[in-house]
Specification:
Largest sheet: 6 strands, antiparallel
CATH class of the largest domain: Alpha Beta
Shape: rod-shaped
Distance between the termini: 164 Å
Number of helices: 7
Structural class: alpha+beta
Low-confidence stretches: 1-7, 9-33
CATH topology of the largest domain: Alpha-D-Glucose-1,6-Bisphosphate, Chain A, domain 4
Helix content: 25-40%
Number of strands: 31
Length: about 525
């Protein structure tokens, strides 16, 4: 203090019309000696006292670490409830640090005054638990300030009141929760990992199962730690179309899903088959479907398309048969069509209509069956030279037509030496044609035999025996030449003697006896 002035180190002191610069060295004590010279007079030693103030700090609860930092005074205190201390006037930084909270403030200490600061954080504790073993957590203040982490169970003390973000992990699963800490109490919070299970199968097996964030494995597969809710799984296998399924998972329950994977070739084949179906080419539809792999042959879509194509094919064939008057075969086709296409009104209507025509067709077929052998004989006779000159003969047997044919062929083979038998392939159903020829002195004999099933229990046999007389005509033109002619033994070609008439009768009897004997004994 000088003339009522109080100075600090480095202050400039006015004296009269002059200003003195004071350089006051800092020392551990708070007193400083000031030396002033004014002109040639020595004013002597003037003692100056350092200005002092008070710093009053409180920490509730006691701070694990309390620091005071100033130009001429610093202190570090642990587990301190606070401190009141006299310090040189100046600015001081006071900081407290708790386990999960810290604060800092700059205080100005004025002469003979008290600078106060009270740190009064509101703390609570957090008791964390989990229903799963080997689960861990991370606690954050806000979005990114990490507080503490570890395994459940855990107690975190000295947490400032407020909301925190808790990230819990168990195996590959994560839960994010907001927890609230209230001051002065132990706040309990339990994390519950509630799981459901799913069983995933595919046909064929070996498909890789994945979801949006991970790959799970290959089918057949069981997943036992899934959160409740809707889950989406994608099945993939080389050569097959990917399949995505949605599955609702319930806690403490097991859900199951099985899917048929679609072969890529199957997809292309089905596209072609559907195109053929749209074009009405039902045969190509069936041919295309027959190329499918065995594993897809009985798929629902394949069966439906195959039935549709087959039914339409039967319906088309029935219409064609109807135009030809074959209603019996048409009914069979329509019955197949109705079986395959139960909702097709056209097929059902045609079936009812065709059935009304079946009796008349049956009667027509009966008449055609009765007349068929004789008509066949007439056809063969018409194309055989001279055959129309000779009478036809008729026999009846109860043997089926095939047995009769075998027996007659055998009988002719033994009738004469060198007898040649010819069997014709005949397009008419239930009929046969046999022709035989033999030579003897002075002539030849030819026979035409036709058989046909006329009823289920009767076969008609018609035959014609042609007798020829051999005539030799010798010429000397260009040398001796013998021309052999076979002239039919008939009144239109020659004079009929009793011998020739007897030959005709004998030929018919010989053929008749042979056929009859063989049919009866065969």
């Amino acid at each position: 203090m000088l003339d009522g002035y109080e100075f600090n180190s480095g202050d400039r002191i006015p004296i009269g019309w002059h200003t003195l610069s004071l350089a006051i060295p800092k020392a551990e004590s708070f007193s400083t000696n000031l030396f002033i010279w004014y002109g040639w007079r020595n004013l002597g030693q003037i003692p100056l006292k350092r200005a002092i103030g008070t710093l009053a700090i409180q920490a509730n609860p006691p701070a694990p670490l309390l620091t005071i930092s100033g130009p001429e005074y610093s202190a570090t205190l642990t587990n301190s409830p606070g401190v009141t201390v006299s310090v040189p006037t100046d600015d001081y930084t006071v900081s407290v640090q708790y386990t999960h909270w810290d604060d800092s403030q700059t205080l100005t200490v004025a002469p003979n005054d008290t600078a106060r600061r009270t740190f009064d954080p509101h703390f609570g504790s957090l008791q964390l638990s989990c229903n799963r073993s080997n689960a861990s957590f991370q606690l954050f203040a806000g979005q990114d300030r990490f507080i503490e982490g570890g395994e459940f169970p855990a107690i975190i003390a000295d947490l400032p009141e407020g909301n925190y973000q808790l990230v819990a992990r168990h195996h590959n699963n994560r839960l994010d929760k907001t927890v609230q800490v209230q001051r002065g109490i132990a706040n309990s919070f339990e994390i519950e990992f509630a799981y459901g299970s799913v069983v995933l199968k595919s046909e064929p097996s070996g498909a890789t199962v994945s979801s949006e964030d991970r790959e799970w494995g290959t089918t057949p597969l069981m997943l036992s730690e899934l959160f409740p809710g809707n889950h989406q799984f994608t099945f993939r296998r080389n050569g097959y179309e990917p399949v995505t399924v949605n599955l609702e998972v319930t806690a403490n329950e097991i859900a199951a899903v099985a899917t048929n994977l679609v072969n890529i070739n199957y997809k292309n084949t089905m596209a072609s088959a559907r195109a053929y179906f749209a074009a009405g080419n039902y045969d190509r539809v069936l041919d295309t479907l027959s190329d499918l792999p065995a594993e897809n042959a009985n798929d629902a879509e394949v069966i439906t398309l195959r039935n549709e194509a087959s039914g339409q094919n039967h319906l088309r064939h029935a219409v064609e048969l109807g135009t030809k008057g074959d209603y019996i075969s048409g009914v069979t086709e329509l019955e197949f069509a109705v079986q395959l296409l139960p909702d097709n009104e056209q097929a059902k209507q045609l079936l009812a209509d065709f059935k009304t025509h079946v009796p008349e067709q049956i009667e027509r077929q009966r008449q055609e069956r009765l007349e068929r052998p004789k008509k066949l004989l007439d056809q063969v006779v018409a194309r055989t030279p001279d055959a129309n000159l000779f009478e036809s003969h008729e026999l009846t047997t109860g043997k089926p037509v095939k047995e009769a044919e075998t027996a007659i062929a055998k009988s002719l083979g033994g009738l004469f030496y060198s007898y040649k038998i010819t069997q014709e392939i005949n397009p008419s159903p239930e009929t046969f044609v046999l022709q035989g020829e033999t030579l003897f002195i002075g002539g030849t004999r030819h026979c035409i035999i036709v058989g046909g099933q006329t009823t289920d229990s009767e076969t008609k046999i018609y035959f014609v025996v042609l007798e020829y007389k051999t005539h030799h005509r010798i010429t000397f033109e260009g040398g001796l030449t013998d021309y052999e002619e076979h002239i039919p033994i008939h009144a239109s070609r020659m004079e009929m003697t009793e011998k020739l008439k007897a030959q005709i009768i004998e030929g018919v009897k010989a053929v008749t006896d042979r056929i009859t004997a063989q049919l009866e004994n065969h």
